[in-house]
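User: I'm new to structure prediction. If I give you an amino acid sequence, what do you actually give back? Let's try with this one:
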Amino acid sequence: MNRPRTSRAAEALAAAALLVLTAACGSRLPESDFGHDDRASAPAREPIRVGIVASATSPVGGGALTGPRDGAKAWFDRLNTRGGIDGRRVEVHTCDDGGSGVGNNECVHRLIDEEKVVALVATTALDYAGASRVSRAGVPDVGGQPIGAAYDTYPHLYGIHGSDAPRNGTPGWDGMLYGGTEVYRYFKREHGARTAAVVSYNQSASAAYARLVRRGLKAEGYKVVTEQVDFALPNFRAVAADLKQQGADLVFDAIDANGNARLCRAMDDAGVRVTAKVTNVQNWTSAVAEDYKDAPHCRNALWATGSSRDYEDTAHPAVRAFRDATKDLETHSQWQLEGWAAARWFTDAATSCARTGITRACVDGYVGRARDYTAGGLLLPVSFERSPEPPSTSRTCLSVARWRDSGGWVAQGDMNRTCFEVPQLAYEP
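Assistant: Good question. You get back a string of structure tokens that encode the predicted 3D arrangement of the chain. For your 429 residues, that looks like this:
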């Protein structure tokens, strides 16, 4: 039986966007969501130490990579008010690696060797230079964001979207990763899109990702319009004029957040109306209203795709728990929800180990055996079944939302049923 698999393409998009940016340099939660301990009056026991590495002060700008950290901390804070895990508090040690490889290695050393954390959770590192050290130490890294190829390279590292790669020290399969075309298939099947534009900078990381997007679009039969702008002096007005002339249905991009806002403003000024201006999980935030305040038409054509349930879908109990616990945050984002899901994943693992001992090896064993894990319905099914051969096709599901000024991000259908059998295209990380 085919099961839904998560997509490498969405992860690649987030990584490419970050590389481009670098160059630019409450209410009670349901008790079932937390481990509950009736022995609150028992003597305090040694806490369970976990580490969170986030590139909080990095070349991409403050706040760009802190969402998963904030979501994970919110989970652990609320968990501790419920008695922790088996009566033990979870003690969270955070480390800002500054977005550099040197800083990342320092964080890894401090957390693993000095703080003696049992696991890393929700890692969001621009340059995960310490990944091999984490792996050699046998420290499970639970639910990290796949910026770069580390989670498809090393054992004991478990990305939030899963992996079928051998993870034997070489990225993917002999140095190649694979991404599906499900996003392009979705807009073709569900919205009749036929012409897609890809906007990039004349910068290596941006151009490389744009080539991958074009390959996927062409594999799905789209007419592809290529738009490249100068990185230092981008002429988005010229791009918008050409988009209108070409009659583009969709616009994809490999540019930074500021560039996207300027592109949208130019599209509005030129009267460009598209079916969708497609963005990724990194930009799936409540800040859209402010970031795109000068482009109301383009703003209301924004769509995001990913591998987790829309953080606005409060009809779902697991999302409602997240929103209740984070109601005091200034903004909300999909990455916050994924950090919350990563912390829940660690909690499930540690709870299963409580009787025999919450050790690195036990937590690692639980997470490594994951088969279709969903964090209570927050994630598309996540697994780590190592495949000796790369996939040629895969049944892949995706979460889709669109921005509406009247309701924020609105989920489009059931992510567990929005699935397609699509080709998997090879690319170098």
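You can read the tokens as a compact description of the fold. Here is one thing that stands out. The domain at 8-177+316-368 is CATH 3.40.50.2300 (Rossmann fold).
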